[in-house]
Automatic annotation (TrEMBL):
This is Germination, Ger(X)C family protein. It comes from the Bacteria. NCBIfam families: spore_ger_x_C (TIGR02887). The keyword Transmembrane does not apply. Residues 195-362 form the Spore germination GerAC-like C-terminal domain. It comes from Anoxybacteroides amylolyticum. InterPro entries: GerAC_N, Spore_GerAC-like, Spore_GerAC-like_C, Spore_GerAC_C_sf. GO terms for cellular component: membrane.
Length: 365
């Protein structure tokens, strides 16, 4: 019996070894790019690591023109040094020109439909030709796929952008009470840079962007305050000079009141912010002018959020999710507009009130 058991174990181990796949026989796409030419032709880019010690380039970039991602993969196989696999994709980069012209979901269908593909890949809108990013040489940085993810992770932590993967995008697109958003990137002085947040309508088309400076206020409205929301404000009203004070919102609450009056939705946003002073360039004793400073901070938050909400309404997008409150508190009226929430949201009356409290000046006076 022992001999039979040993024989079976040996067969199992041998069969496992026989199924091994050498890394240098695979082309693992880590970053996938999609763009469009001026005449509407679809361009597909793939960036894959090269596992060959004799190779001069350690990243293989392939570009093909195609009508779909599936067809594009077959074409990539014609040029790739190994069998193409898509289960390790970390980033999907969409050119802004393409995102403006075509809805994204049909383009990305195979990534959702084929279980071999990854839906945790980050979705990114690139402001410029995608080829520029895919073929860029980022000195003193890791591979392109890792460099992109690290950059987005760092800037998202600072609230300068958002992290949206394919699954997040799919969920937001099919949620009638909100509209999708994703990271927007570009290139500056041949270096990758995060530019802010790209906004999509309920059809999955790109319609507008908000800057990295405004991104924290989108996340404030979405009640995503942790770990902190930093921003800098002018103190001319406090000192009479063009000086700055930087603050960090460590705690806060956002409350929404929802009504339906006179044929439109009405929302009131109440923000209670607790902030600490993180930098004081202004020559002023803030302990003696705390109440005035709190009013300046509250006014800054109100101005930024109100301007942001006007931008959303102008483009008929709702990345905050006001539609979720409309559905929860005014369901009968929501039901009439759920399939065209962007238009109803654009006509809504929205007011914002802010109360700010300075809870710390930092560890020095």
């Amino acid at each position: 019996m022992k001999a039979v058991a040993l024989l079976l174990c040996g067969v199992l181990f041998l069969s496992g070894c026989g199924m091994n796949t050498r890394l240098d026989s695979l082309t693992m796409i880590l970053t996938l790019g999609l763009d469009a030419t001026d005449d509407g032709k679809l361009l597909m880019y793939s960036s894959s690591p090269v596992f060959n010690k004799d190779a001069k380039e350690h990243t293989e970039v392939i570009d093909v023109d195609t009508s779909s991602l599936r067809e594009g993969r077959y074409k990539v196989d014609l040029f790739a040094s190994g069998k193409t696999v898509g289960g390790k994709i970390q980033n999907v980069v969409i050119g802004k020109h393409l995102a403006e012209k075509r809805a994204l979901l049909p383009l990305l269908d195979v990534l959702y439909r084929d279980p071999k593909n990854s839906t945790t890949a980050l979705l990114i809108v690139y402001d410029g030709p995608v080829k520029e990013l895919m073929e860029s040489k980022q000195k003193d940085k890791p591979r392109l796929a890792v460099a992109i993810r690290d950059l987005i992770a760092t800037t998202a932590l600072d609230k300068q952008t958002v992290k949206t993967n394919l699954l997040d995008f799919h969920r937001m697109l099919f949620e009638k009470g909100c509209t999708p958003f994703a990271t927007e990137m570009g290139m500056k002085n041949r270096k990758m840079v995060v530019k802010g947040v790209a906004l999509f309508n309920n059809k999955g088309k790109y319609v507008a962007s908000i800057s990295a400076k405004d991104s924290p206020f989108l996340q404030l409205l979405r009640e995503e305050i942790k770990p902190a929301i930093p921003f800098t404000l002018r103190t001319a009203a406090l000192t009479g000079k063009k000086e700055n004070i930087s603050v960090s919102m460590e705690h806060g609450k956002v409350r929404y009141q929802t009504k339906y009056r006179n044929g439109r939705f009405q929302f009131h946003v109440q923000i209670n912010a607790e902030v600490i002073i993180t930098e004081k360039i202004a020559d002023v004793d803030i302990s003696k002018k705390q109440k005035q400073l709190e009013r300046i901070i509250a006014n800054e938050i109100k101005t930024k959020t109100t301007t942001l909400l006007q931008t959303f309404q102008r483009h008929h997008v709702d990345p905050v999710g006001f539609g979720l409150y409309a559905r929860a508190y005014e369901y009968s009226h929501w039901k009439n507009v759920e399939n065209n929430w962007g238009k109803a949201f654009a006509a809504a009356d929205i007011s914002v009130s802010v109360k700010a409290d300075v809870i710390s000046y930092g560890i020095i006076n």
